[in-house]
Structure of Amidohydrolase 2:
Amino acid sequence: MSPLRKLLVDVHTHVYLPRYASVLRSRSNAPRIFTRNTPSGQSEDRLLILDDEPSGGRPVGGQYWDRDEKLKFMDRHGIDISFVSSANPWLDFLPFSEAQTLAQQLNADLESYCATGPTLAPDAELKRLYGFGLLPLVPGAPGESLPEAVLQLAAQHPHIRGVIVGSRGAGSGLDDPALEPLWAALAETGLVVFLHPHYGVGAQAWGTRDNGHVLPLALGFPFETTTAITRLILAGVLDRHPKLRILLAHSGGALPQLSSRLASCIDHDPVLAGRLAHDARWYLGRLWFDAVAYGAAELEFVSEAVGRAGRYGGTAAATQLGGRKEGASRMLFGTDHPKWRSVVENLEAIEEVGTWTEEDKAGVQGWNALRLFQL
């Protein structure tokens, strides 16, 4: 197939499968789905993720759990393939035994959701839907249970090509030494780790003025991602597991913008002397970034920062393929559907990056994803 053939792949699109929605409906406190009447007297379902969420959560409906609705959205916007993931809060509000059972059930549901869906004509070997699975990554999870869950996922669910994880791990963050077997298993299987925020940063940072969801989502979510991946880097996880593949939501938060500041601070901090194998900026070239940034200038900046990563490690950190810039080859289109109506903004942003060639743009729109997910 020609590398310039048009292909649009969405790597950041969410679902609440019916089984999970039922769990959320059964709850009386966040996270939960509840029904209320609108001012016009109509009933609507609302999703409340956090107890202090503004405006009583957000509307939720069939676009979250109905596969036909997902496919209609894809057809409307010319999306060929979607990698769907359960939206936050995942499972960390459950005790381990319940989380383990529910993760297994939801992964089986997701495999069926993808496997029984349509194929991508004329490429009958490709499906239109693939998934990120769930792990029982909750406080109290026995250490041996997580690598076992990864190996089971990889062996039993061929249409699940990765896992989605939040920032708290099993309660102590992703740099918890107890998670070392998890990273080893993920590196061994080749499952892609989609690092996605959930809690943001402390609400006290936003003051008392009612600004709706803007500050927690626009700033809190990417700050959470930035902190989580930086902790992983500082813990040496990427050094110890060179095959580990991590995709960062929302274009990596603030990590690309702060990577040189981070490198400078590490260089001047005796606590970290000799801990990392490379300059902190080098690790940008070990990561992948969704292109959910909403603007061409932001995408261009991230790709430039990632493309420069190799100069800080002696050898190129990102592989240049087919003439594409190294940074652009690490970026992948996403919509964040159905929480945001951002598909048009993100597509326009890709088209408007002036330093990207048509081949660069084709890579970001689809071909980079097939390479990352080994399809």
